[in-house]
Amino acid sequence: MARSVGFPSPRGLVRLNAVHVTLPTKLLALALIVATATATEDAHAASFRLQSQTVGDAYQLVNSFDELINRRRLHQYLGFSGHDLLSDGEHQLNIVTMLRFDADFGLGDDDLDDIPSWRREQLSLQYAYLDARDIGGFLDARLGRQVKADTLDYLMLDGLTLRVELPFYVAVEVIAGLEVDNDAASINASMQELDGVRFVDEPGASNPATIVVGGALTTANLAYTRGWIGYRRLFSDGKVDSEKFGAALYQRVIPGVHVNGAVSYDLFNGRFDRIDAGARWQATDFLDVHAQYLRQQPSFDADSIFNIFSSFPLNDVTGRVRLHLSKNSRVYAGGMVRFFGNEGYTDGAVIGTVDTLVRSFGAMAGWSARFGAKGRARIDVSYEGGYGGDRTLFDLGGTYNIVPNEWQLDGRLSAVIFRDELQPELNAASFGYQVGGRYRVVDQVGISLMVEHNINRLQTHQLRVFALVDVDVWL
Amino acid sequence: MGATNRRDERGFARLGLVATLAVSILGGAVYLSASDADAAGWPLPRDKDGKIIPRKRVIDPLTQEASDLIHKKAFGRKHSPSSLIFPDQHIPIRFSHAIHVELAECTDCHDDATKSVRASDNLLPKEATCLDCHDVEEGASGDPPSGCETCHTGFKPDWLPGADKSDTSQVKVHPPKIVIPNPNIKFNHKIHVQKGVSCETCHTNIDKVAVATRDNALPTMGTCVSCHDGKQAPEDCDTCHITNKDGRIKTDLPGGVLEPAGWYHNDAHDDQWLQNHRHAANVGDEYCSSCHTPKECVDCHNGVKKPMRVHPNNWILQHPSAARKNQPDCQSCHQSQTFCVDCHQLSKVASTTPHRPAATARFHPAGWVEFGQRGPNHHSFQAQRNIRACASCHTEESCTSCHASNGLGGLGVNPHPPGFVSSGDCDRMRDKNDRACVKCHAPGSPQLRCL
User: Fold this and answer.
1) Choosing among A57, A168, A224, which should be mutated to test the B contact, i.e. which has the most B CBs within 10 A?
2) Close Cβ partners of A238 (under 8 Å, ≥ 6 residues apart)
3) What is the residue range of A97's domain?
4) Do A8 and B337 count as a contact with CB atoms less than 8 A apart?
5) How many structural domains comprise chain A?
6) Can you tell me the mean pLDDT for A194-220?
7) How does pLDDT run across B120-129, given as a tens digit for each residue?
8) Nearest CA to CA, how far is B313 from chain A (Å)?
9) Is the peptide bond before B61 cis (omega within 30 degrees of 0)?
10) What is the pLDDT of residue A23?
11) Is residue A15 part of a domain?
């Protein structure tokens, strides 16, 4: 995605007036017409769903200057979907939409300088697409605003995704469209867009649309083998914003032994931005062992100079052993070590001893259990040390269904000791608890409330209240 | 020109290597899966005449059959069907399949099984079927024993006055009923019988058990997927699992929430699933969307809902350490230049915050910014290790204030890694997008030509 054109302005890298992409609205209207027209033949099998979720979140924090900041936020989801519009029982034609309104209260005007207004009061179309499946027995199509997640990245785009199943358990995927811009105001909001450039409101800034094209070859209809090879390019004004090539594989090698792997190669930066490989051995119902390796080197929007500074990857190895004490309870223990490299940068004008390889490490253990319809509980204990500071955490949480499917009680206790060599003033031991619950008023309506209270020397008391109202109706 | 060509060649060679590797992996996987293969997906060996050479069978430990074999090694744990799929049963009866299979065919008693098209069909033999061989009037001493208590353990019949004792309905109180709740699964016996699947294929060890129960006679998912692998039979989740109106798997079941245990597809929704679910998503979102809607993705990844399970209590205070470690991966849900910088400006942590009071404490350690020489605390090392931690407070302007060329208001401090030009990185990045270059290099400068 383009983040800037030409030279930096005094206020940083800015954008021109947003090009309001009206494609989703048009697609939505078209889809509704199609849905209505096709649903009339056999309205009994088609089903429609209305979802609403209201999220209220209020919390306090103390800033670096010992000022208390009260934050209050409201988020409202509104979703409508129609399924199996052809009434064929195969869900060959569906339409799905989800809107969200976000509002941020409790802040003074001064606090909000340099934070674009549309990021604190924003109506956004999270997704809205027409979904056609198994057309002719081989084609899936999705048209509209959609979220795509795969080896290469998260992506929110306005466009078309096609998937064609070929013989020999292979399918081809093609995507084309426009990347959804968080800064394009109106109803365009995305946290999935490429990171790296911060933009602020400035009259006269431009916002060229970012075009997304990509393709992938995948396995199809195989239970124990799932493979994916894909390429994706995002570009604007003829310049590449992101260009990646990647592959991923899951394979059950023999019963009980699973391997997975993924690589993503950044063609702009000329390097792997992620390599991921792991294996899990489920020896018996009683025991499983899991090990995972991750090599990561962040990539940013090609417009961002952060790509230059992001020079070395971090390498991470984690492992866990789980004992399944019964069908519904297990214990685990594990460890991790993460290496941050600087090799090659210690030559030249260096004073003192500079580690070319720094490490963070950790160990964790826990227990979890499910008690059928009555609830669940868990305990987690972990320690992390090395680069970035030390943290010791004890965490206990659980859910008790007082009246199954009606009244639910949630609780959580945490005790944490953390220490950061960069910021000794922030070293602390903190105790916190959450108490909350959920009441299902009727099958379609639920209310949740959660209160979090934290106590420590830095913030004597810190309170957070989280409330949620869910409405989910099949019409 | 020659150097550029060599760089291009290196770039193409690297890309070619990656492409070859990736194609090989996927191609190999498809070959393994598409060819004649065993249950694990590996091709079966053949002799010179092309005939398959039988090889020692790898027993799936997640079937009841194998679970019996390795019972002792599993510390007494035995793989058995999910109680969410097959809710708890109450079978107050004495019966021995082990004895009866010697005397009769399965369908002699379960004659409805071959016609059944729903898992909820009651396929237990009716009492009359039992009475074909068991004459109640002969009582427990008959051959075969046929008293009420022969099957209804501990039941002493209290007959109605003048009752015909060959008619078991004429008792004052009936024995406890068998309760087998409807399974939360689709199953069509008729199709399986027509396909030639024998009873023993699914009801393994039925010839060794007494009363057949969920835990000793019903198939586990491991048994199902040994055929439902996409090749012998459909592998779609909704082939067997019941679905909601939107076609997704119904996971909210009366006994609790149905979650994968991970035995079959490495998808255990366990203590590490928050980190590991990316492995499932890596290969496309189709598998995940069997159960999940896009809203569940955006709740976190474009999130406001902040599920309390993700971060522990008092996360705001302790998150700096996690951010420097990048553990967990912050960027998977939080964009540094919007989410992080916004919040750091609001809380006046970021140095670029408007109306920020004069700092009373130093945030970065001594030696953070030193010109000419770099010590262990120098910011460059931190940036190279994990630039995202920097980008959570700083925008590019912080960097360009020093690293931009003199003509653009900076100090001309070169941040490029050694070999940036000679490796071809400079040419490639400039050719694809020079918008980042011009933030530091003035128009017409030789650096913009990678010189």
Assistant:
1) A224
2) none
3) 1-46+84-265
4) no
5) 1
6) 82
7) 999 999 888 9
8) 6
9) no
10) 55
11) yes
| Cα-trace Rg, chain A | 25
- Considering CB atoms only, which of A100, A254, A351 is closest to B373? A351
Q: Which residue has the tokens 């070395």?
A: A312
Task: Give me the residue from A113, A245, A355 closest to B18, CB to CB.
Answer: A245
A1, B260, B317 from A300: Cα distances, Å: 10, 34, 27
C-alpha span between B329 and B327 (Å, rounded): 5
Can you read off the two tokens belonging to residue A141? 């199509």
Query: For residues A378 and A395, what is the distance between their CA atoms, to the nearest angstrom?
Result: 8
Size of interface A-B (CB pairs under 8 A): 514
> Any CB–CB contact under 8 A between B340 and chain A?
no
Q: In b/e form, how buried is each residue of B344-356, taking b as 16+ CB within 10 angstroms?
A: bbbbbbbebbeeb
Q: How far is B355 from chain A (nearest CA, A)?
A: 7
Q: pLDDT digit string (tens) for B53-65?
A: 654 444 555 555 5
Please state the rounded mean pLDDT for residues B33-61. 55
Give the pLDDT confidence score for residue A16 in this predicted structure.
32
- Residue A210: its chain B contacts at CB < 8 A? none
Contacts of B276 in chain A (CB under 8 A): 292
Chain A: residue nearest B364 by CA? A422
Nearest CB to A222 within list B33, B284, B417:
B33
Q: How far is B49 from chain A (nearest CA, A)?
A: 24
Residue B64, SS3 per DSSP: helix
Peptide bond into B87 cis (omega under 30): no
Q: Specify the DSSP class assigned to residue B24.
A: H
Chain-chain contact of B314 with A416 (C-beta, under 8 angstroms): yes
Nearest to A12 among B327, B331, B395 (CB): B395
Pick from A63, A263, A278: CB nearest B349:
A63
Beta bridge partners of A382: A364, A393
For helices B425-432 and B2-34, the axis angle rounded to 10 degrees is: 80
> What integer pLDDT is reported at residue A462 of this predicted model?
86
Asked if A382 and A361 count as a contact pair (C-beta separation under 8 A), the reply is no
Amino acid code (one letter) for B240: C
How does B27-62 read in b/e, with b if 16+ C-beta sit within 10 Å? Answer: eebbebbbeebbbbbbeeeeeeeeeeeeeeebbbbb
pLDDT of A274 over the 60 cut: yes
